[in-house]
């Protein structure tokens, strides 16, 4: 690991041009970060992640209760985070952490609000928005252009159809779709 302007970056990390990495960021080995990316705040990124251009990771939460306290974003290993994805840190009300597990595909233009907890091996398709405090369990699939209301939980192996609006929990092993999403 190499300390660069306060950030801790593994020796073999690839960082594209015009990328900004803040002083409290830690990036694990084998990670590739494309150009024009912003990673700031107290953000820890594990090993072998691929982050595409124009992603914004670790910025302060979009929550009126946020009052400058130290909050965190923790990203596991082997994730793919595509273009223009936006992921906030946590808040005091959510345990200070936004957490992303391992092996996830987060497609382009995804917004992930504060205090989300994302498990492992999840697919979140393009232009999806997750409000604060959303939890998605392992192996779930979230269809594109969907929205998940704050405090909702998506169970493991659940599948949400594209263009859906989720305003209540989705049980494990279920297929849901629609505005307001219901079991199919």
TrEMBL record:
InterPro entries: Hexapep, Hexapep_transf_CS, Lipid_A_LpxA, Trimer_LpxA-like_sf. Keywords: Transferase. The keyword Transferase applies. SUPFAM superfamilies: Trimeric LpxA-like enzymes. The keyword Chloroplast does not apply. It comes from the Eukaryota. PANTHER family: ACYL-[ACYL-CARRIER-PROTEIN]--UDP-N-ACETYLGLUCOSAMINE O-ACYLTRANSFERASE (PTHR43480), ACYL-[ACYL-CARRIER-PROTEIN]--UDP-N-ACETYLGLUCOSAMINE O-ACYLTRANSFERASE, MITOCHONDRIAL-RELATED (PTHR43480:SF1). This is Acyl-[acyl-carrier-protein]--UDP-N-acetylglucosamine O-acyltransferase like protein.
